[in-house]
Amino acid sequence: MLKKSKLAIAAVVAVALVGATVPASNAATDKKLEIFTWWASGGEALGLKGMTDAFTKANPNTAFVNASVAGAAGTNAKGVLVSRMKAGNPPDTFQAHAGAELTSYIKAGQVEDLTFLYKQQGWDKIFPKDLVKTLTSNGKIYSVPVNIHRANVLWWNPATATKAGVTAAPATMEEFIADLKKAKDAGIDGIALAGNGDWAIAHLLDVVLLGTLGADKYNGLWKGTTSWTGPEVKKAVSNFTTILSYGNSSKALDWPDAGKLVTGGKALFFIMGDWASSQWQADGLKLGTDYTWAVAPNSVDKKPIYMWLSDSFTLPKGAKNRDAGIAWLKVCGSLAGQDAFNPAKGSIAVRTDSDATKYDSYLQAAMKEWKTDKLVGSTVHGVNWNNAAMASYNTVVGKFYTGGAKDAAGLIKGLAAIQKNGK
Amino acid sequence: MTRVRVVSELSYLEVFRILKGESPVASTTKKHVQSPWGGFVFVLPSILAMAVFVYGMIGWTLKISFSHLNSSDSTDNSFAGLKNYRDLFQDSDFTHAFSNLLKFTGVFLIGTLISGLIMALLLEKGIKGEGFFRSIYLYPMAISFIAMGTSWRWLMDSARDKDGTGLNSIFHMAHLDFLQNDWYTSERGAMFAIALPAIWQMSGYVMALFLAGFRGIPDDLREAARVDGASEYKIYRHILFPQLKPTFLTVLIILGHISMKVFDLIYGIASKSYVTKVLAIYMWQVIFDIQDFAKGSAIAIIILLCIAVVVIPYLAYVNKTEEMK
Questions:
Q1: Bridge partners, residue A33, by sequence
Q2: CATH number belonging to domain A24-147+310-364
Q3: By the CB < 8 Å criterion, does A137 face chain B?
Q4: Which of A173-187, A192-206, A254-268, B239-253 has the lowest mean pLDDT?
Q5: Quick check: A70 and A79 in contact, CB under 8 A?
Q6: Is B185 in the A-facing interface, judged by CB distances under 8 Å?
Q7: What is the H or E stretch that residue A348 is in?
Q8: Record: fold of A153-307+378-420
Q9: Which residues does chain B have within 8 Å of residue A398's beta carbon, measured at their own beta carbons?
Q10: CA-CA distance, B154 to A317, in Å (whole number)?
Q11: How far is A107 from chain B (nearest CA, A)?
Q12: A24-147+310-364 with A153-307+378-420: one CATH topology?
């Protein structure tokens, strides 16, 4: 009897001790957290792992379930998400691009208002004001951005540039097209194109539109002050057609394979967002020697423009593990979370107090420019148009590209129709 | 004298027996059915499942196609009549997808019929190692469409000459450069290129059906014709092929409805690319990317109608021939 009661006391003491060492009330009380992203591979998956490690450290009692769906730019994930939301089975948090892409979910009443979290965590003071304004819809904020990517970046391999006789990065569209011709004369494809899924070709069109129209007129396209059927867009489409003619002959490459054409010396230029850099570093290549970068050519603006896109996380209405979802969002917006996520992902943190020493030379330059450059949004990545309009955008551009880039009038008509049909 | 039975009357069990070379009739003893209700109860679960998951779902899809649910945040369930169907026929993407589907169906049907028939002709007389060849021709059917789509996507990549991979590089190495082309990214030839893997996969199945048809024809007919002095060609043309008409019809119907539904093969090869878009892929895009549910349901009903046009007359014909016996 005595032994048993001694055992019982020991057990109670042990439980009490363990209870005392459980982390403070910040830890999620839910058993599980299910997140939904399209970061399934490469540098993106590495970055996500950095943030999930930070989450599990702060919330050791919560199992982490990663329900990611592969497919760049969320082309497959969004479809899966639609069916889950309609079925009333939302994940506890899902990835969505900041900007117009969120409006579909906001209008459908599928995401919760997170303004309370911003005030509680002080994010309204630490995130850049312009970004918070873009995220605010009718006075409410519905998502927590974790990163800023730049879309208008020109990448090339220094060795290939020397072979083609290109000594400096082209600053204007005209110089760019001249360099493409130099590459062709040297027997190399001028630009690497990733035709699979059409979005990378639409991404190129975004950058060519910016480079031909300039930032103000580009922003005017989405506001309605610049006409889609005007002469500026016509010139941009003509530039686009010329650039496409210097592309590689395989029309259905994924973007990492198109990137390999550049690092392998088979193509000279690559216009892609800065996630390309983290992919190449994950492949073991060195920034500066195996590949280098410049701002994408722009014929109008004298100072560099920052075409941005931002991945953000939301809190769906009816999430089964709401507390775990909020704990995840807290990690997303925290300094530790963002500085663990972004260096591996190849993007810069949204927080203005981020530690620059953790980032490589490209990202440090991007951080500096983010503070000073004029900002325009990336259409293909959710800033200017919502999901339905983006799907039509990819289709219209894909139709143009696979049709041999011949029907410029049809392309312009299609784009104008998308803008007209409303966001 | 035994009556010649045509393939359409045979059950799958009997087809297998014929392929193995046995008589199709299993045994002549019949089980005495205890009561009519026993049989009905036995199939009741299947009927219920069909009623809910097939006809119930079709009805629901039909209802949505008549509504105004045209965007992800719309809750407007009001009756819109044939508005969505009218919009479809004015939608150039829809007509493009439809014409792609018809092109694909045509090439697929002709290609599979010809290659399946040739393989059946080669094997039907019975050669050494017939089992081996039969298996080889049937193996492609065992591969999932997605796995096939991924490998054929590589094989039919449009990069040429030194950058080429797959078929283009084979042509380049064999100095047949004029044969290199854009395959499934070509504006005019995309559907022909997509039909290639489909033909490769289904030829074996068509061969099996035709083999069963050939084997169902008793040898007496051939012997009698040979005794009468007919050449092999005349035997095929006047005796064997007419007997195969029901098989031919079966093959057409089966291939026709498979090709109307084709999705995963094309998605695996070219994703949602414009030049290879067919109805099922356009429907996927409209529902999941553009989230116009009413329009997507309308496309689904149209696909169903296309298949019904092919299958229902065939079922009526089979029913009629059963009743005539």
A1: A64
A2: 3.40.190.10
A3: no
A4: B239-253
A5: no
A6: yes
A7: strand A348-349
A8: D-Maltodextrin-Binding Protein; domain 2 (3.40.190)
A9: 272-274
A10: 42
A11: 6
A12: yes
CA distance A284 to A266: 18
**pLDDT given for residue B255 in this prediction:** 92
How many Cβ atoms sit within 10 Å of the Cβ of residue A111? 23
Distance from CA of B202 to the nearest CA of A (A): 26
* pTM for the full predicted model: 0.82
The tens digit of pLDDT for each residue in B169-208 reads 898 888 888 888 888 888 888 899 999 999 999 999 999 9
- Give the start-to-end residue ranges of the domains of chain A: 24-147+310-364, 153-307+378-420
Which amino acid, residue B60?
A: W
Q: What would the pLDDT profile of A22-74 be if each residue is shown by its tens digit? A: 444 455 567 889 999 988 877 778 888 888 898 888 888 888 888 888 876 67
How far is residue A197's CA from residue A274's CA, in Å, rounded to a whole number? 19
CB-based contact, B150 to chain A, within 8 Å: no
Cα–Cα distance measured from residue B297 to residue B53, given in angstroms and rounded to the nearest whole number:
16
Boundaries of every domain in chain B: 92-324
Q: Residue holding tokens 């003619």?
A: A245
pLDDT band, very low/low/confident/very high, at B239 (cuts 50, 70, 90) = confident
CB burial string B57-70: b at 16+ within 10 A, e below: eeeebeebbbbbbb
Residue A78 makes CB contacts below 8 A (sequence gap 6+) with: A387, B288, B289
Q: Is the CB of A402 less than 8 angstroms away from the CB of B93?
A: no
C-alpha A93/C-alpha A114 separation (Å) is 12
The Cα–Cα gap between A228 and A220 comes to 10
How many CA atoms, within 13 angstroms, populate the side-chain half-sphere of residue A284?
0
Sort A248 into a burial class: Cβ within 10 Å, 0-12 / 13-18 / 19+. buried
pLDDT in tens, B70-100: 876 677 778 888 889 999 999 988 999 999 9
pLDDT over 80 (residue B242): yes
Token pair in block for residue A324: 């775990």
Among B94, B163, B276, B292, the residue to mutate for chain A (most A Cβ within 10 A): B163
B77 Cβ under 8 Å from any chain A Cβ: no
CB contacts of B156 in chain A (<8 Å) are none
ipTM: 0.78
For residues A59 and A366, is the Cβ–Cβ distance under 8 A? no
CB nearest to A248's CB, from B159, B271, B274: B159
Domain B92-324 is of which CATH architecture? Answer: Orthogonal Bundle (1.10)
Q: Could A391 and B285 be called an inter-chain contact, meaning their C-beta atoms sit closer than 8 Å? A: yes
For the residues of A283-347, what is the DSSP string, one character each? TT--BTTTBEEEEPP-SS-SS-EEEEE-EEEE-BTT-TTHHHHHHHHHHHHSHHHHHHHHHHHT-
User: Distance (Å, rounded) from C-alpha B244 to C-alpha B246?
Assistant: 6
Quote the pLDDT of residue A18: 46
List Cα–Cα distances, B67 to A95, A388, A421, A423, B83, in angstroms: 31, 19, 19, 21, 9
Give tens-digit pLDDT for B28-72.
555 565 667 778 888 999 999 999 999 999 999 999 999 888 876
The residue of A84, A261, A399 whose CB has the most chain B CBs within 10 angstroms, and thus the best one to mutate to test that interface, is: A399
Angstrom distance (rounded) from CA A42 to CA A318? 31
Q: Which residues contact B183 (CB under 8 A, 6 or more apart)?
A: B156, B157, B158, B167, B168, B189, B190, B193
Nearest to residue A397, comparing CAs of A201, A260, A231?
A: A201
